[in-house]
Amino acid sequence: MADLMKGKRGLVMGVANERSIAWGCARALAAEGAELAFTYQGDAFGKRLEPLAASVGSSMMVDVDVTDDASLDLAFARIKDEWGSIDFLIHAIAFSDKNELTGRISNTSRANFKNSMDISCFSFIDVSRRAAELMPNGGCLMTMTYGGSNRVTPNYNVMGVAKAALESAVRYLAADLGPQKIRVNAISPGPMKTLAGAAIGGARATYRHTEANAPLQTNASLESVGGTAVFLASDYGMHTTGEIVRVDGGYHVLGMPRAEHIG
Q: Which residue range is the domain that position 56 belongs to?
């Protein structure tokens, strides 16, 4: 394979560094021939992104704050001016105050709840509306979620609620945009060693636990998540929409840890 995405263009949102899930997706899509544009927030992330974008032949980088309508308007206007249309969008953006991810969820502040939902869920709805306007011939929208959306996970708290809302948004957007031949899906990797994952308390212990207990006894990799993104964005994914595609070594099927790890 080398041409699954040849002739297709897409926007990747959320690359923080070379270990980002968004970067794993971008690298895999570029390897299959896709032409990419990227968003970042602030000069610091822009400097990290620039050499990565260049490595896949991209020079289109746009500074975007997903909580600012004017910022999003400018970003999508530039993409429309330069490309006219896109074929796919990857949304890998989430945020919550890490100080509120520990302790009891009942202590979540109103301000952090609103901010977490705005950035982690509403931003996908908002960019999906804008991206759909640039997909006259259909396309694919993807976001990233995690199993803490439907099973209680230590130190995840309000992010679990936000991801549950995000997964529901995927289903409603799939129904909304399906008549326009636009597919909407989420990828749900297990724990990964990313900048975002490091903000979760006990991340190392969670990573070791899932690796030891998942049926495949391995955690997701940037390559496996990227490959899933390629499938969903390519023509092979033409009839897949409204799905939460789990890439977690099978951990989601478990009711308890493996027998040798009990007791």
A: 9-248
Chain-centre distance for alpha carbon 108: 24
- CA dist 241 and 142 (Å) reads 10
Q: Is residue 52 part of a domain?
A: yes
Over residues 179-194, the pLDDT tens digits come to 999 999 999 998 887 7
Integer Cα distance of 157 and 111 in angstroms: 15
**180 labeled part of a ligand binding site:** no
How far, in whole angstroms, is CA 25 from its chain's centroid? 9
What 3-state class would DSSP assign to 107?
A: helix
Q: What is the CATH number of the domain that holds 104?
A: 3.40.50.720
Q: Quote the number of domains for the chain.
A: 1
In a domain, 218, yes or no: yes
148 is in an annotated binding site: no
Q: Would you say 7 is a known binding-site residue?
A: no
| Distance, CA of 184 to CA of 164 (rounded, Å) | 15
Positions marked active-site: 146, 156
**1: in domain:** no
User: What number is the average pLDDT over the span 48-56?
Assistant: 97
